[in-house]
Amino acid sequence: MKEQKTTKVPVWDLPDVPKGKLPPHLQLQRTRVLCTFDAPTHTESIQYSGAYAAMGVDNSLRLEEFRNNFRVEVIKLTEDDMEFDMIGIDAALANAFRRILIAELPTMAIEKVLVANNTSVIQDEVLAHRLGLIPLKVDPRLFNYMIENDEPNEKNTIVFKLHARCERGSPRIKVTTNELKWLPNGSELILSTEKPTQDSTSKTKTYTSFNCRQDTLPEFLDNPIVPKHDDILIAKLGPGQYVRNFATPLVNETSTNEASAISFTFPCMIESPHVSSNDTFSFGGFIKLAGAVGSGKNEGLNVMGTSGSVGMEIELEAHAVKGVGKTHAKWSPVATAWYRMLPEVVLLQDIEDGMAEELFKKCPVGVFDIEDIGKGSLIVFDQFIDRQLGRKRATVARPRSCTLCRECIRGDDWDKLLSLRRVKDHFIFTIESTGALPPEILFTEAVQILEEKCERVISELS
Amino acid sequence: MEHGSFQDESQATFSLTDEDHTLANSLRYILNQDPRVTFCGYSIPHPSDARVNIRVQTTGDPARDVLKDSCQDLMLVCQHVRSTVDQAVMEFKSKQGVELMKIK
């Protein structure tokens, strides 16, 4: 007897493969990152529109679908921090927002430091670097960028003054941002012009040319521009010191003319009360440094001991301008901004009793909870039944706090019981602002900047 | 700047200056979702130059139009994201305000 030839049925018509939808294992690959013990798998997002064309599933982005599925949930919102969830967006866009938040949102930061006097132990450039990193509490949208060859005016510069001094005899003082005073009228340091015969009635030229006072503008009337925190330590100034030893110019025997003698300047008052007069020469006031006289002879300076300055003083003016984080990190408006994908912990099998306890203890952040099963329905009349009442089961209570330490899948065979995954389109964004702008406004500005970039491309193409 | 051919408008390489992964990756994502696109990718010839090359190959439509449409789609997506976030923040703030009132 001949067997009936089995009719070929296309696999799509088989009853258990739903048409127009992906089979569950492919859906898992598409929407979840599987975090196995070695490395995460399926991390790339399948973006190609025709990726599942053979299955009859359309993978393309329909704007309508995106609009319907996209959700935002704010978890925490304070003056400086924000944590919110974005569901339905892709990693490419989330990363674009993160990059713009860090590098392309403008802020104001101190760029030029005009030092009038610095006799502290902090060098000029170190002081200027520290001043640049101080976050300023001012809305950068009210200012313009300073273009090259532009005059510093009230629309693109903010001027601060710092004048601190430690008197002789007083203990070491800390110079904090409290002492950084805003000068709404612009710079007070006078530009030295080449023509001293200028009309004395004309306005003295300073380093900035403000046309009007900045605090007459409505935004600054009631809130002066200050650094965000007034307790940031800028420098420490100590009092003057006695100099025990002295400095002698070491001159080669053969040279006797004045040109090869070296003298030096530092503002100091040197008192050597314990040194006898025949091996020191005491001098007070200022001594001029006449440059390095290097004529090949063995000349040097024999400074034996440290000199302290009388009353360390810092007097400077700092000009703040607008910039972006790409140029220098001081202009970054966020302390940092980061995102992570929502973790998902799935128990592949029921985990009970001893294993459940073990799992509960293993997790350092408390993702799992023990649940009693068989509660209340058994009557205790026997110790045997009593043991059955104590049956426990592990459940996943707080998957969101999972840090993916993988402690729960360590050990033999634990990874067959648990599956650690990440949801590919659910991002938990955290933004920590340094204070110039509140975080929700920062995010809105970042999205706007991405829109402007697109517009620029469109106008270039047309 | 478009590097393409006048005979075959469906494939071209667009060289954008002053751009980096921020815009290029997002554009590539949106381009990929467009059903008219057979191939799209981006590369950065040298990290010191701020220049990005985006390659687009389509099923017949001119590549420039497809790129323009994708930019516009990206703008619409951004606008939607912005409005949703603003709305969510407002709701959260009003909810917080209501809770504060309750405590008071």
From TrEMBL, chain A:
**PROSITE patterns per the record?**
RNA_POL_D_30KD (PS00446)
Does Transcription count among this protein's keywords?
A: yes
Q: Has keyword Transcription?
A: yes
Question: What are the alphabetically sorted keywords of the record?
Answer: DNA-directed RNA polymerase, Transcription
Entries under InterPro entries matching the protein:
DNA-dir_RNA_pol_30-40kDasu_CS, DNA-dir_RNA_pol_RpoA/D/Rpb3, RBP11-like, RNAP_Rpo3/Rpb3/RPAC1, RNAPI/III_AC40, RNApol_insert_sf, Rpo3/RPB3_RNA_Pol_subunit
Residue ranges of every copy of the DNA-directed RNA polymerase RpoA/D/Rpb3-type domain listed in the record: 81-460
Put simply, this protein is called DNA-directed RNA polymerase RpoA/D/Rpb3-type domain-containing protein
- Tell me the organism's taxonomic lineage: Eukaryota, Viridiplantae, Streptophyta, Embryophyta, Tracheophyta
Automatic annotation (TrEMBL), chain B:
Residue ranges annotated as transmembrane are none
Return the Gene3D superfamilies for the record.
RNA polymerase, RBP11-like subunit
Sorted alphabetically, the keyword list is: DNA-directed RNA polymerase, Nucleus, Transcription
- Protein localization: Nucleus
What the entry lists under Pfam families is as follows:
RNA_pol_L_2
Superkingdom, taxonomy of origin: Eukaryota
Q: Where is the DNA-directed RNA polymerase RBP11-like dimerisation domain?
A: 12-83
Family according to the record: Belongs to the archaeal Rpo11/eukaryotic RPB11/RPC19 RNA polymerase subunit family.
Record-linked HAMAP family: RNApol_arch_Rpo11 (MF_00261)
> What name has this protein been given in UniProt?
DNA-directed RNA polymerase RBP11-like dimerisation domain-containing protein
UniProt organism field: Rehmannia glutinosa (Chinese foxglove)
